[in-house]
Amino acid sequence: VSLFTLEGEAEWYHEGDFHFPVLSAEREKLQGTLDLAVATMWNTAEFVEQSSKIRKKKYLVQNFEVGFYPPGSPYRIATSATYRMRSPMEYVTISKWCQNWLREEYHTEAAYLPNGIDPSFYPKRGRDLQGKIRILIEGDCSAEHKNVDESFRIVDLLDKDKYEIWYMSYNAKPKAHYRVDRFLHSVPYEQVAEVYGQCDILLKSSFLESFSYPPLEMMATGGYAVVVPNDGNQEYLVDGKNCLLYPCGDLEAGLAAIQRISTDPVLRETLYQGGLETAGVRD
């Protein structure tokens, strides 16, 4: 296995005991042949499609990436064009929602490969929510569709003496006006489960996701999730059964959901059991 990147200088990628060579798709000229190459974002699809050195070509569509860009952006057109590539490109996607819009809007059939997690990677523990309650906000605040600003507007309404706010983001750093007690930046994947396990409630306000991992990861540790519903998380989230959902933009509803979890032990037990069951099904 080798990795091709469009940017960056890394020559190796390390995952546990495995070490994969990293090549630049722009700087390197492919001399040999590859049995299989998988494009993983719209701007990698052209490289895979046009190379005559690749025997089998697949495109893993991870999201409706057109929505990453504002109306009028030329990137919207370029992204959209990659969803219409013909044979020999084979399409794969990770959610029923993505499979449906590829078929309905682009007349492209994609194989469905369900996302999942390894529950053993996420040690579970019950939360009694005694003392200060720890809220985790996750997401890149520079990406509009992650809607991170809304999460921070909600936690601004919480009692500072009762709630502690952790913010985890791989790329972006917190904005100056964010209330953050602890910032976790570029946390390695193998340490992410530990972060979820140390927090009580995940607040996730993204309005565009192909498949949203954070609520599922939080459930796997036995924690609670307050989430804006979107096409990418409604595949497994059920309000009042394994999470609490609130409408995008309704700060008071998001605040009320956090307060319900904080004060209702019967609800917490329901969400705890439902969350663990959901994570188990997604093994």
Number of strands: 13
Shape: globular
How large a portion of the residues is in β-strands, by DSSP E? Answer: 15-25%
User: What is the H/E string?
Assistant: EEEEHEHEHEEHEEHEHEEHH
Biggest sheet layout = 6 strands, parallel
Average pLDDT value?
A: 93
Distance between the termini: 24 Å
Helicity level: 25-40%
Q: What structural class should be given to the helix and strand makeup? A: alpha/beta
Main β-sheet, spatial strand arrangement:
10-9-8-11-12-13
From the alpha-carbon coordinates, what is the Rg to the nearest angstrom?
Answer: 20 Å
| Total helical elements | 8
Based on the model shown, name its key terms.
283 residues; alpha/beta; six-stranded parallel β-sheet
Q: How would you explain this protein's 3D organization?
A:
By secondary structure, the chain is an alpha/beta fold. 30% of the residues lie in helices and 22% in strands. It contains 8 helices and 13 strands. The protein has helices spanning 42-50, 74-81, 96-106, 148-155, 189-198, 213-220, 251-263, 265-281; strands spanning 3-5, 12-15, 18-24, 34-39, 54-61, 89-93, 110-112, 133-138, 163-169, 182-185, 201-204, 224-227, 244-245. The strands form 3 sheets. Strands 10-9-8-11-12-13 form a 6-stranded parallel sheet, sandwiched between helices. The protein has a 4-stranded parallel sheet with strand order 4-5-6-7, covered by helices on one side. Strand 6, helix 3 (96-106) and strand 7 form a beta-alpha-beta unit. The longest helix is centred in the C-terminal third of the chain and has 17 residues, at 265-281.
